[in-house]
Amino acid sequence: MAGLVSHPVEPHANTLFDRLATRRLLVVSGKGGVGRTSVAALLGAALADRGKRVLVATTGHDDRLAWMLGAPRLGDQPQAVTERLFIQRLEPQTCIREYGGLVLHSTRVSSAVFDNRVIRKLMRAIPGLDDFAVVGKAWHEAIRGGQYDTVVFDGPATGHLLFALDVPLAILNTVPKGPLTKEAELMQASFEDPSRVEAVLVGLPETWPLTELVELGEALRERIRMSVAAIMVNGLWPEDFAEFAEMADLPPGLGEVGRVGAVGRQQRESIASWQASDVVRRCATSSLLTLPWQWGGLPHLEAVRAWLGQARAAALHGGSQSVE
Ligand SMILES: Nc1ncnc2c1ncn2[C@@H]1O[C@H](COP(=O)(O)OP(=O)(O)OP(=O)(O)O)[C@@H](O)[C@H]1O
Ligand SMILES: [Mg+2]
Asked: Is residue 3 situated within a structural domain?
């Protein structure tokens, strides 16, 4: 099928992926359903292609990440999909036990503590503990575990992500000094270090959702002090019929043609007016990447690689590249 051919990654997109490949933890976020998991899979493939050993860790409840990368299902233990690319679901209960074990320096002690029925009940009443364990586990694998060069964390959607990433600071502000605050301190220090940890934000090509995404970027920078590496605008439709016909493998002359072109143009206009607006100046990044809508979906790794070859970089502000 046309569109499944892997093209070499466009030079400016390549430069962005090269930069992302030097980070230890990439936190992918955006609103629900915009393509966070797809972008996490794309980053996993891009970084593994650069020779990195990568774990894509998701909090998602379905098996989509596994399907996109060619595995039948997703488990709560790491699973290799290629020599260098691994996937895993981060389940709060498992993370609490495992990450708790790391903090307590013993999984046996941790299991004894966390498998206790009374303690489990008590813990459910502590807001943020689940999130802390999940973020902590992703952070541990990325920064301290030593098994991976990079962890791509397909975390919760917008508001919930801020809540989860806020937990280390909340601990530092409220909990007396001890093993938990030591962890929170280490975690927070790496969140604040853009050479190790950055966020990648995903949004749809519409002015208002992209404006909201900038607000998320601002909140990450101001509240969590985490840098935003790039904004990825996902689901761009082609602007002209020839491109559409090639991608969708359709005979020419269908009634949809005009509509596709109109949607594609409308999306580009929305991005352009957002790029030109003041709001974009508040954005903590200058890197923008557009990702086209894939008519055949993203059913396996080769499809993700083909998609990667169609990623286009554009400058977000102050630069000369615009979205084509
Ligand atoms: N560019 C694209 N082309 C084709 N299909 C896409 C594209 N981006 C996302 N999809 C499809 O849209 C659906 C939603 O994408 P995805 O699961 O990545 O979103 P999400 O933000 O992780 O959603 P959730 O909030 O449910 O976790 C999936 O079936 C995915 O394969
Ligand atoms: Mg998802």
From this structure: no
- Is 6 inside a domain boundary? no
Per the structure, the count of domains in the chain is 1
Is 293's C-beta closer than 6 angstroms to any atom of ligand 1?
yes
Q: So what's the pLDDT on residue 285?
A: 81
pLDDT of 255 reads 54
Return the ligand number nearest the Cα of 298: 1
Closest CA to 20 of 204, 143, 196: 196
Q: Is this model's pTM higher than 0.85 or not?
A: yes
AA identity, residue 258:
G
Residue at 156 is within a domain: yes
> Counting ligands in written order, which one lies closest to the CA of residue 300?
1
Q: What is the CATH number of the domain that holds 143?
A: 3.40.50.300
Cβ(33) – ligand 1 distance below 6 Å? yes
- Please tell me whether residue 234 adopts helix, strand or coil conformation: strand
- The residues of the chain scoring below 50 in pLDDT are 1-3, 319-320
Q: What is the pLDDT of residue 34?
A: 96
Residue numbers of the domain that contains 56: 11-315
In order of 37, 48, 66, 91, 153, the CA distances from 86 in angstroms are 14, 9, 10, 16, 12
Ligand 1 atom closest to the CA of 202, numbered from 1: 21
Tally of CB atoms within 10 A around 106: 13
Structural domain contains residue 171: yes
pLDDT of residue 106: 65
Residue 298 near ligand 1, beta carbon < 6 Å: yes
Atom of ligand 1 nearest to the CA of 296: 4
pLDDT in tens, 227-286: 999 999 999 998 876 666 666 666 655 556 667 778 899 999 999 989 888 887 777 687
